[in-house]
Amino acid sequence: MRTIRRIHVLGLATTTALALFAATPGAVAEQEPLPGFTPDRSTEQRELEKLFRESIDPAQAKQLSTTLASKPQLVGTEGARESADYSVDKLREWGLDAKLDSYSVYASTPRDISVRMTAPQQRELSVKEAPYPSHEEHYDDLVVGYNAYSPAGDVAGEVVYANYGLPDDYAKLEELGVDVTDKIVLVRYGESFRGVKSKVAEEHGAKGVLIYSDPADDGFGQGPVYPEGPWRPADSIQRGSVQYIFNYPGDPLTPGEPSVPGTDRLDPEEAGNLPQVPTTPISYGAAEPLLRALDGPEAPKEWQGGLDFPYQVGPGGTEAELNLDIDYEQTPVNNVVAEIPGSTKPEEKIVIGAHYDGWTFGAADNTSGWVSTMQIGYGLAKLLEQGWQPERTIVLAGWDGEEYGLLGSTEYAEQYADDLLDGAVAYLNMDGTGGKNFSADAVPALDDTLRSVTKDVADPNHGTVYDNWVANSDGAQPEPGRLGSGSDYTAFLDHLGIASAAAGFSTPGGEYHSTIDDLQMMSKFLDPGYIGHAQAAQVTGMVGLRLAQSDVLQLGYASYAESVQGYLDDVADRGLNVTGAKQVAARWQEATERLESRRDQLTNSGGEQAEFDRVSAAVLAQERALTSERGLPGRDWYRHQVYAPGEYTGYAVQELPGVNGALDDGDTATARKYLALLTGVLNDAAKAADRGTR
Known about the structure:
The chain has 22 helices and 18 strands. The chain is an alpha/beta fold.
């Protein structure tokens, strides 16, 4: 029989946490044993999780947020470094071994940004919001509205309105007889990642891109604007990166390698993720005169926005000039890293991370996620004080430079790739936790763990976080979304093949990447009381604890294999013969069902330690098996063959990206090659599952 190492964690008390967060929905003794735990260990685990939950206090979240979000925290600035140093000091104060991991990354810095309307009138357009009283102390430190990694340039010409700036929009312009060659295109934020808008404009010969937030999307068309409400006011500018992260994220000059001394670097003109068309954002207040003066055909009905006149597409009537003085230089990127070594399986790691950098004050994006991550650190530190130690290693990470292109997390994953490939169990991301509505995205292997944990975390308005999730879902059982890109899980999942999840809370609003992403917005509209911050820390912290403590890893791949068969059915609908791939996917599902049955037998009835380890190793191997060093067509940094961002979907996931991406391009021959590659990785996953039951 397997010997169970019992850890007693007793006597931890809390006087600051709200009673809500000390409560456990349902009596512990009456709850079902946790998957992956023996009955005795399951009871211990629930006691451990209760103690952890009791240490998480919304008042602490508010205090941490007030300190961190009181100043801008853009990568490479003094504010970002101050936040990193404060975080390290605080984690050390709580008893954790925290440090900075630093990189030198090629990045852009705006020197002078100007946008002028030159016809039918001369008019300087604002490129920075007016200050609110609470912003005045740090107003000069706030970056102007600009898009990171845009090339510098001075361009002038006629303006054409291109809706959201996606391929179908340009096809519609062509139908209308409008050519954007050598024009400045004016496009709306939304529907896809802003870098896709720059890429598509480049493909169609535009000389410049202006991106604005239409009031119909996140301004007065949605409700009262800030400071009376949470929606975007007329002068608010959405900043953001236009780096082509769909090719690869991170340092443009070191794809696949860390930006540390000794790494060979590309010349900038060789980099594959830098846009070529000058691109910059403006507010809808600045866009209004440009749109109002446009001649040409009237825009289609679905292109009309929230301003009080009919939108026309041009050209004619409106001309503009962009002057973008942007420097490129090596920029410091400082990750905050704290590691809690595992007691029995230190080589196996659960990484919990959030970026702390922000475009402005970043109270929501992403001081909230980093504060929740720090609170997980506090909760774990309180357990350590009582003599507890995790079975597996837990790493807490505060990423720098996420807003520019997932810089810190990508460089970390590339630097420690061998170590992570050997033993990383999962990566848990926290990007946006300050809100009232729960949501989660994950690979299918983590779906059941997320559902289980959320049933054990209280919610003031819904009973439990699970009930909150149901209330914000379409069905009776909430289904996590699937991960593409756009946050720090990208390198872990898409490049290395590490099972990943991202969970948090949000409230509808228009603060994204603007100066109104501040403490007043957070405390008045988004997360009054900082309840969401604390709940997110409890949910993700408990997921991490279950993965760190389980007797057998409880990642579930039977439902994963079933999902892949559904994706193959969709490919078949596009005209490709998937019979062989479906047979292999079905065989993988059968193998995982046997593996999960064996896991349950072990946890219910016991067994030798070697059997527990063999099953866990088989579980761990499956996500890695779904990757190929061949990568995706034209995008070899992306190795995962089931999930990745599409070239034109932006952040959104594209299932079976090698196959579907080639079909999107009309390249049936390449689609067939990647279907064969997919069949091979599915077969590898099935073999990995089989090794756990031999």
